[in-house]
């Protein structure tokens, strides 16, 4: 995520929009029980935190995939063998999954 986008997302006074979502009662009960233990004022801020974490992870993964795809395309144009590219990508996935 770019620095400017991150600064915007960290602002406390960002505009909010009402969202309605149906959830099982036991999940809401668990959220209410866990929220204060994690330092949240209620279960709704905890839900926002969970959604934000998942969203940031997906955005990072998707933007990273785009960068990797662009790099692979550039290397192909420069004549790097497909077998070498596939091996390098496979090795990088193994290396990052272990950490």
Structural class: mainly alpha
Whole-angstrom Rg: 20 Å
Q: Report the principal-axis shape.
A: elongated
Helix percentage range: over 70%
The run of helices and strands is HHHH
Low-confidence stretches: none
Total helices: the number is 4
For the sheet with most strands, the description reads: none
Number of strands: 0
Our measurement of the CA-to-CA distance between the termini, rounded to an integer number of angstroms, reads 21 Å
Mean pLDDT, rounded to whole units?
A: 85
Overall number of domains: 1
Strand content: under 5%
Overview of this structure, please?
The protein is mainly alpha-helical and 99 residues long. The chain has one domain (3-98). Helices cover 74% and strands 0% of the residues. It has 4 helices and no strands. The protein has helices at residues 3-10, 25-37, 43-77, 82-98.
Keywords summarizing the entry:
single chain; 99 residues; mainly alpha; 74% helix
Write a short abstract of this structure.
By secondary structure, this protein is mostly helical. It has helices spanning 3-10, 25-37, 43-77, 82-98.
Helix and strand topology:
Elements: H1 3-10, H2 25-37, H3 43-77, H4 82-98
Helix pairs in contact: 2-3
